[in-house]
Amino acid sequence: MRTFSLNFSEQEFDEKSYQTKLIKHLNSEHSHLMVKTEDIAKNFKKTLFHTEIPILRTAPVPMGLLSSLVHDNNYKVVLTGEGADEVLGGYDIFKEAKVRHFWSVNPESSFRPLLLKKLYPYLNLPDSNQATYLKKFFGESLDDPDNICFSHLPRWSTTAKAKQFYSSDLNDELKTQAMDTMLHSLPEKLKNMHRFNRSQYIESKSLMGGYLLSSQGDRMLSKNSVEGRFPFLDHRVIEFSNRIPPKLKMKSLNEKYLLKEAMKQYLPEEIIHRHKQPYRAPDMQAMTGKYLGEELRHHLSINELNNNNLFDGKKVAFLLKKADSGRKLSIPDSQALIGILSTQVLIDQFI
Question: Is 311 a member of any domain?
């Protein structure tokens, strides 16, 4: 078996220890790519040339570098695991929704929101008032747990905070809200689905197609003439999975339960029982400071921002200063800065 993987110089993103166990278990011929933070900044513009659309995360950049490693080793087609989480219930957002439903029964509880800490151990929580912080971040629509989009509202609200950096002209021009457009696109029969299946449907129809399989997936493979094959997205696998009761996809908070049960005879126990770690790359804050060179900073200058008139130059300058200072950026701030930078670069490249 021939395998390829990514490693990161920043430990919080690296999965090398688990990769090593699996490589040894499979006895595969393996190649890995060590990605440093400066590699992400260095390849950011080239990545956007291939995404052709703004991004809110830096994660596509290392994926493009990995496909280059595959190409350099004279392989043209790879098997990869996209779709397993969407189809068989693996994502933290599904666990998060279960915890939030449990929390909504007693919204004033200071204990129930702390369960979210188990899902996101990498969150930078304050030493005190953690329940208050979590409620601010995840407490969206606790009073409306039957909302058809309940599972995704915290994520969408977090992302929407980037709008505070829009220019006044852009805000005046916008006539519709993205969330309303999304709601109107959902089928009526979604209301009658089990809420777990509802979450799966929304995740598959929103993030998977437009981002995971495109900006982060096929476009990053295609840029190096590599093709991806996605076994978990075979229509027969999806049709079978859609008949599985939700309790067998996620048993309590044990994600992809049935898949793990099916595969535990073939895989090391440490792989089956490890804590779920989403694929992430160093974010915008890691790219700032010494890594964000003059070429990228040019796109975030007040003059460039005002010329394009999509973002408020003074507000963006304040956000960039905050990132450069080394102070921890919130997830909304980091996503906003990546979104602003990627938009500015794309305008320069294509418009």
Answer: yes
Query: How many domains does the chain fold into?
Result: 1
The CA distance from 57 to 116, in Å, is: 22
Phi and psi (nearest 5°) for 289?
65, -130
Decide: pTM greater than 0.90: yes
Are 114 and 167 spatial neighbours (Cβ–Cβ below 8 Å)? no
> Do 151 and 195 form a contact (C-beta atoms < 8 A)?
yes
Stated as kind and residue range, the H or E segment containing 284 is helix 284-287
Tens of pLDDT, residue by residue over 94-146, are 999 999 999 999 988 878 888 887 777 666 666 666 667 777 778 888 889 99
CA-CA distances (angstroms) from residue 200 to 129, 162, 190, 298?
Answer: 32, 25, 11, 40
Could you read off the pLDDT of 177-233 as tens digits, one per residue? Answer: 888 888 889 999 999 999 999 999 999 999 999 899 999 999 999 999 999 999 999
In a domain, 317, yes or no: yes
